[in-house]
Each structure stands twice: as structure tokens, then as C-alpha cells.
Specification:
Layout (H helix, E strand, L loop, with lengths): L2 E5 L8 E5 L5 E6 L4 E8 L13 H8 L11 H8 L3 E6 L4 E8 L10 H16 L4 H4 L15 H14 L2 H13 L14 H6 L2 H11 L5 E7 L3 H11 L29 E6 L4 E8 L6 H15 L5 H8 L6 E9 L6 E8 L8 H16 L6 H18 L3 H15 L3 H4 L1 H7 L2 H11 L6 E7 L15
Parallel strand pairs: 3-7, 8-12
Antiparallel strand pairs: 1-2, 2-3, 4-6, 4-7, 5-6, 9-11, 9-12, 10-11
Length: 473
């Protein structure tokens, strides 16, 4: 039995509709005036459902989803969308994989959706439900460390090359180092989403296809359409194109997802140094945050993040970059990542050692001193709180300005947080916050004895320099 409800989307005048079908598949339609539409399908799987044997398979599958169906050959989807001026892409992360099309609606008769949109929906749904993952596109298994290998590589080699490029990135190295400290062995978040060269080189096509059929099931999928369309017409089209029975896709049969409560506390190690080929040093400091369903604490930490390290007026920027006569920090920022099994608060940055020094700890103590002030002697002020509130409201409003912004915010709420209410209630919770609540959340989650810190220090022969900004993944 289908379950339908209307939704009041912030900043939009028309009500949206959300339908959950009897097989568990969810469809959300958001009417938004304008010529641009967005179609996205979010799948509740990423590295969270992998293990050491198949680490990286979700990302590999994302690549292969564009390699053809029974109806469309490889490249036809891309060519058709590009010819109408649309943009297609996908992304894989710890808790999800999502695929989207953003394009111009074009001319359409009254009450109709138009040829551009219908073609996009047809191709998108056929890819989601009917990808064939052909052998010739996957490529044969091979040893990626065999420099003498001359065989065909195909998409397998594309992913392996992507992994190889990331292995040399400083942010990737220290992010993975922090992950290994923050989570116990076997925790799905400890592994790198992209996997390893050896696993991707060895994983059989049959394993990839089985994973696709296991996790790309109706209950694991949410399709969001944002655009200037009629709901009744749209619902008919969704029912036609997302016909799971036609593709013989079962509504049941996949195992339960991991739950936060089943994992133990992480290892006691809280500090790690990684050698790098750079003359400058990079660091990430991570803190376990609340589970995303705890919206008040989640938003409170977003406020604290703005005060502490987002923007030129933030405390860390002022204290470490703007005010010192000879600053050692080149860049510092904060942010909170939303994860199904518990959010993570990051402080990250880049610095140069003062002349004659090679120990990063005295440098990091400058940052720690500023954080300790916020938690003890100099808590967030009402003025700072109000400034951060205003900025968060502006950021949230900007998501409603584009079809893709609305779709991504809704998709993350349903797929990661577990309910669209976290999106619908955001402004209400934000407006009810006070500075005392924010300071309490900061003290609860950001104490220095709860930090996990990884820093990259120059190794022998370091000659490169790279102090560009880059957010933690």
C-alpha cells in the first residue's frame, strides 16, 4: 500500500509531495518554477556495506552504472544528455551513492513534462534499474602492480589510476590516518571509500553485479524530482519508468545496515604523524559528534564551527592567521560531516614550521589554546552566536535557489539522517537555539581529550610545496 503526504518546503510557495510505495521505494516531487529540472536517485549504500574483501566496490559500481543497459549502449546516456545541455554525474560516499541529471526543461504543452525531461527520466531510470555491468566495460582482472601487464584494462584501470593519484595527496593520507584512529578495526567508516588498487584489480565482475542487485533495491532507493511540472503527470511517469517488477528486482532480501550501537569504542591512539614529500605540514583534528537524528546538537555544532573556524572573522583565522606578525599557519578551517553512524567535527589546516623547529606539537598547541578558550574562559558570545545564526540561515536559503541544491539537501536527509524531517525542521530548530545550548554542545563534543589528530610532516627529500585549501572528505 502506498503512503503519500504533502510537504511544506522552506522558501517555496507550492507544496511538495512524498510517496512511499508498498515495495519501499520513495519518490519526492518538489515543484519549482523555472526552466531547470533536477532528477536524482539516492541509494542507501556506500562503503558502509563493504568489508575488507570488497572495499571500494560501491565507487567502482558507480563508474560502471554508466556503461550501458539492454536498451542503451555505453555512452548513449551521456551523449543524449549533453546534446540537450544537461549535466549528469554521480558521487559515492560512506552512507550513500547518488546519481543526478540537471538540465533545461525546454518547451512543453500545457500539463506535459516536455521531451527533454521525459528522455532524461527514461535514461536515468533505465540506468538505475537495468544496468548490465558488461564484462567488456569492466575489463579483465589483473595485478595493478605488474608494470609489464599489457592486457586490456578498461574501466577497472580508470578507477585504479584514480586511486593511485589520491595516494599521493596529503589530505587523503592524513584523513585516512584520522579515520584509522577514530574507528575500531572492522568499522565501515575506517576504510577509504575509493578502496585499494589490489581490490579493484582483483574483484570479479560477478561480485560487482551481485552487489548491485543486492543493494539497489526499492527500499534502498529514493528518487527526487525538482522542477516546474504537474504532480499527477509526474507520478504517472515515475510509476511507468521505475517499474521494479519489470526488471525483476526484489523488494526484500538485503541484510540490515550497520547500527552505531553495535560498535565498540575506538582504539586509544589519538595522535599520528605521517611523513610527506612537502616542505609544508598538513593536519586534521577529528571529534566524534552526535548522531544526525539529534538535530539540535548537530545544528549547535554547526554554529560553533562558524564561530571557531569558518570565514575571515572566525576565532582561529583571526588568532592564527590575521593577528600574528609572522603567522606560521597558512590556512585553517572547521566543519561538520553528517554520517549515519555519528557525525564528525573536523578542524584542519596547513602550516610552516618556525625556523629551527621540526616538532609539530608546539605549533598545534597554538590552535589547541584557542579551542580551550572557547570551551572554558571565553565561551561563544551572544554577538558571535547571532552572526553565525545569520550566516547559517543565508546558507540554508541558498539551497532553495537551485533545483540541485534542494534535491541534494532532501536526498541527504532521507538517506543519511533517515527522515526528511531533519530538512523540514531545520529552520525551526535553528530559530529555537540559544548561545547556552551551543556552548554546552561544544564542551560536550570538542574537549581536547576527545580529539584525534593526524599531522603530515616533511620527510627526507621533501621538495614540494602545497598550501592550498581543501576540505576534509
Amino acid at each position: 500500500m502506498n503512503e503519500a503526504k504533502t510537504l511544506k518546503i522552506p522558501y517555496l510557495s507550492q507544496e511538495a509531495r512524498m510517496v512511499t510505495y508498498g515495495n519501499g521505494y520513495t519518490f519526492v516531487f518538489v515543484p519549482k518554477q523555472g526552466d531547470v529540472f533536477n532528477i536524482s536517485t539516492w541509494v542507501k549504500t556506500g562503503s558502509i556495506h563493504e568489508d575488507d574483501r570488497i572495499n571500494g566496490i560501491s565507487h567502482f559500481l558507480e563508474h560502471l552504472m554508466f556503461k550501458g543497459t539492454e536498451r542503451f549502449k555505453p555512452g548513449e546516456f551521456d551523449k543524449a544528455m549533453e546534446s540537450m545541455g544537461a549535466v549528469i554525474n554521480a558521487a559515492t560516499w560512506k552512507d550513500f551513492t547518488f546519481y543526478y541529471v540537471t538540465g533545461p526543461k525546454g518547451k512543453a504543452d500545457a500539463g506535459q513534462i516536455g521531451a527533454n525531461f521525459e528522455l532524461a527520466l527514461d535514461l536515468h531510470s533505465d540506468m538505475m534499474l537495468g544496468s548490465t555491468i558488461p564484462d567488456e566495460e569492466v575489463g579483465p582482472q589483473y595485478d595493478p602492480f605488474d608494470t609489464d601487464y599489457k592486457g586490456e584494462k578498461r574501466e577497472r584501470s580508470v578507477v585504479i589510476e584514480e586511486i593511485s593519484m589520491r595516494e599521493d595527496q596529503p589530505w587523503t593520507k592524513i584523513y585516512n590516518s584520522v579515520n584509522h584512529m577514530m574507528y575500531e578495526a572492522g568499522h565501515p567508516y575506517q576504510r577509504d571509500v575509493i578502496g585499494t588498487r589490489q581490490i579493484i584489480g582483483d574483484v570479479p565482475r560477478e561480485t560487482i553485479y551481485d552487489y548491485y542487485r543486492q543493494w539497489y533495491s526499492p527500499a534502498n532507493m529514493t528518487t527526487i524530482v525538482v522542477g516546474d511540472f504537474d504532480f499527477k503527470v509526474m507520478e504517472e511517469k515515475i510509476a511507468r519508468y521505475f517499474d521494479f517488477e519489470k526488471f525483476k528486482i526484489s523488494a526484500n532480501g538485503h541484510p540490515a545496515s550497520p547500527q552505531a550501537a553495535q560498535f565498540k569504542a575506538p582504539a586509544a591512539k589519538r595522535y599520528d604523524e605521517v611523513k610527506g614529500e612537502y616542505q609544508t605540514s598538513f593536519f586534521i583534528m577529528g571529534f566524534h559528534g552526535p548522531e544526525p537524528q539529534h538535530l539540535k546538537e548537530t545544528i549547535a555544532l554547526d554554529v560553533a564551527s562558524h564561530v571557531l573556524g569558518e570565514g575571515r572573522s572566525s576565532r582561529l583565522t583571526q588568532a592564527l592567521l590575521e593577528k600574528p606578525a609572522t603567522p606560521v599557519f597558512n590556512y585553517v578551517s572547521c566543519g561538520q560531516s553528517t554520517f549515519k553512524l555519528g557525525n564528525v567535527f573536523f578542524i584542519q589546516g596547513n602550516f610552516n614550521f618556525p625556523e629551527g623547529q621540526s616538532d609539530p606539537k608546539p605549533v598545534l598547541q597554538q590552535l589547541e589554546a584557542e579551542l580551550e578558550k572557547l570551551l572554558t574562559t571565553e565561551p561563544i558570545t551572544e554577538e558571535e552566536f547571532q552572526r553565525a545564526l545569520k550566516k547559517l540561515k543565508v546558507n540554508f536559503a541558498e539551497t532553495s535557489e537551485t533545483a540541485s541544491g534542494i534535491a541534494e539537501t532532501i536526498g541527504e536527509a532521507i538517506t543519511v539522517v533517515g527522515s526528511i524531517d531533519s530538512y523540514l525542521d531545520y529552520l525551526n530548530v535553528l530559530n529555537q537555539l540559544d548561545v547556552a545550548t551551543v556552548n554546552a554542545a561544544a564542551r560536550k563534543y570538542l574537549a581536547l581529550d576527545k580529539a584525534y589528530t593526524s599531522v603530515m610532516v616533511p620527510g627526507e627529500g621533501a621538495s614540494k610545496t602545497d598550501d592550498g585549501e581543501e576540505e576534509a572528505e
